[in-house]
Amino acid sequence: MASRQLGSKSATLVDVAHEAGVAPMTVSRYLNGHPNIKEKTALKVSSAIKRLNYSPNLAARMLMGQPSNAIGLIVPNLGDSFFGEIAHNIQEIARERGMLVWVAASNSDRATEISIIEQMKQHRVDGILLIPTPGLTPPTTRHSFDYIKNQPPIVALDRPLANHHVDTVLVENRRASAMAVEHLIGHGHKHIVCISVDSPELYTIHERISGYEDAMRQHRLPLEIATSKHTVDDIKDFLRASFHTTRSLTAIFTTNNVTTLYVMEALSELNIAVPLKIALVGFDDSEFAAAMHPSLTVIRQPMADLGRQSARILFDRIASRDTVRAAIVALPAMLIVRESCGCKLPKRQYATAAGSRI
Question: In what order do the strands lie in the sheet with 154-157?
Fold first, then answer.
């Protein structure tokens, strides 16, 4: 079909339909990601959109009660590289679907989180990806209990959304942590301390500490957990006291990157050599982990998969609008063995069992 001459006039949905040789309703369904559009028809519409340089009028769509062809992403902190990597992979999947991603930070504050969700609802986003604010306990106010109701589809990732049954994508924090501690035990360590600069009330930290406890209890070894050591000096004081009161402490498991850095700095100031005097395994890989001396043995999280899986689940839910039971997807993490644990052969890898879908 010959392209329609529009001059300086912006192309409309009707123009696209005429160009593609289909009904306007078909174009609308294509733009809204309707699952029953035939591939041949979708190609016609897509080609027509490109030829006419058609851009849907977002304001008009909102006034008509139509979806915005956008999704929302709410993260605790935009400056954290972990959340940045997740956001990047979500945007890649969204771009493939022709969708825009609106990104906002809750600053780990529930009131801010609720406000952002309400604003996204007013702008008629098609769905929301949410890394919920920290905490193990559900919200206590009625408004907090109700703030998910009557929303577009929501998928929680990294952490579950307390008191709500929504699709959720998590990392197997507990299993991966147990695997890391088992590796230390395999080196003959019997006195292993778990250190965290974050509160165990944070879901991921709670799960990682639980994994440490699982492994230690399995081997009937003593538990020693140091949480909320917020500064390098706090950790240094703790380690100094530990070494002065008992010389049996031989290994450390840290619950995230920040804790690992603090521990390494404290050990350096105390002239405690890793792994000669004490072994170390940390949760979270990073650019510096392999470059440090000694290189760090770590748990590597599947950040790319976390973002991509959650985005795909959200888009499937948007397309189907079904009411089936919410899915929980658990993604495996990997133990990257380097030198800080005492291994002589670097870069051996161990993976958890395959992720599960409940």
Answer: 100-105, 70-75, 127-130, 154-157, 167-171, 328-331, 356-357
Q: Take residue 257 and report the two structure tokens written for it.
A: 């990157």
Q: In angstroms, how far is CA 240 from the centroid of its own chain?
A: 35
The pLDDT score that the predictor gives to residue 351 is: 45
Rounded CA Rg of the chain: 25
Domain range enclosing 15: 1-53
Say whether both 187 and 213 belong to one domain.
yes
> Could you tell me how many helices (H) and strands (E) the chain has, helices first?
13, 14
Which helix H or strand E contains 226, and what residues bound it?
strand 225-226
How many domains, in total, are found in the chain?
A: 3
pLDDT in tens, 289-331: 999 989 999 999 999 999 999 999 999 998 887 667 788 999 9
In this structure, what CATH number is given to the domain that contains residue 152? Answer: 3.40.50.2300
Bridge-based pairing of strands 167-171 and 225-226 is unpaired
Cα atoms in the 13 Å half-sphere on the side-chain side of 211: 28
- Computed from CA positions of residues 256, 258, 259, 261, in that sequence, does the dihedral angle turn out positive or negative? positive
> Is 63 inside any structural domain?
no
Question: pTM for the whole thing?
Answer: 0.77
Nearest to 310 by CA among 75, 32, 62, 31: 75
Task: Report CA 199 to chain centroid distance, whole Å.
Answer: 19
| pLDDT above 60: residue 143 | no
CB atoms within 10 A of CB 193: 21
Question: Taking Cα atoms as reference points, which of 75, 79, 87, 177 lies closest to residue 130?
Answer: 75
For the segment 31-50, what is each residue's pLDDT rounded down to a tens digit?
A: 766 667 888 898 998 899 88
Distance CA 18, CA 209 (A): 61
C-alpha torsion angle, residues 21, 24, 28, 29 (rounded to 10): -60
109-120 residue pLDDT tens: 989 999 999 889
Alpha helix segments (H runs only) across the chain = 13-20, 24-31, 39-52, 58-63, 81-96, 110-122, 142-146, 173-186, 203-218, 232-245, 257-269, 287-291, 303-320
Same-domain check for residues 226 and 346: yes
pLDDT digit string, tens, across residues 248-294: 789 999 999 999 999 999 999 999 999 999 999 999 998 889 999 89
The Cα–Cα gap between 161 and 169 comes to 11
